[in-house]
TrEMBL record:
Keywords: Membrane, Transmembrane, Transmembrane helix. The chain crosses the membrane at residues 62-84, 104-120, 127-144, 150-172. This is Integral membrane protein. It comes from the Bacteria. The keyword Transmembrane helix applies. The lineage of its organism: Bacteria, Bacillati, Actinomycetota, Actinomycetes, Propionibacteriales.
Amino acid sequence: MSEDEPLGAEVDAEVDAEVDIVLWLAASARPDPPARLRGRIDAVVAPARAPEPVARDRPGRLLGAVALALCGAFLFQGVGNLVAGDWIADNLGEPFSGHAYREGAIALIAAAVCAAAGAVRRSWSGVSVLACVPLAVSLGVHGVGEIGVFAAGVALHLTQGLLGLLLVAAWWRDRRDTPGRSREEGA
């Protein structure tokens, strides 16, 4: 044991010396580059910087609110079909088909994502309108047939139909805004 101790002490001394050197190098002051070099670097890097997010691609408040409301209605129906499909079928007096309810629920959740896209970017609102309005209006028309049969279905489907029509109106109003003239900015 006594023979190993001098060797261990030498290794410890070497490691301590290397650690001290590394710490000194890491803590040493770094010189600032010359002003001309900094100017040349800034001239090359400045054009390559990412552009700031443009506020013009944000949808108007009305379009965003209607798109999110329609997203919520589609999501509510989709999750409801996944969770309580048999209860819905019983209240409608129709046979329950788990496979059809699951596939319909997945499609409604996908439509909810499309509706939400219209609330995120103005450039995506066209996709939101094209994908969601026909579905919402057809569900609204279908809801009329449920009057007197299933009150919850009537309320949900008529709401979806109304939101579909509001989404078209809000999109039409929002797309007429130009970057220089926005209804929300009061210009």
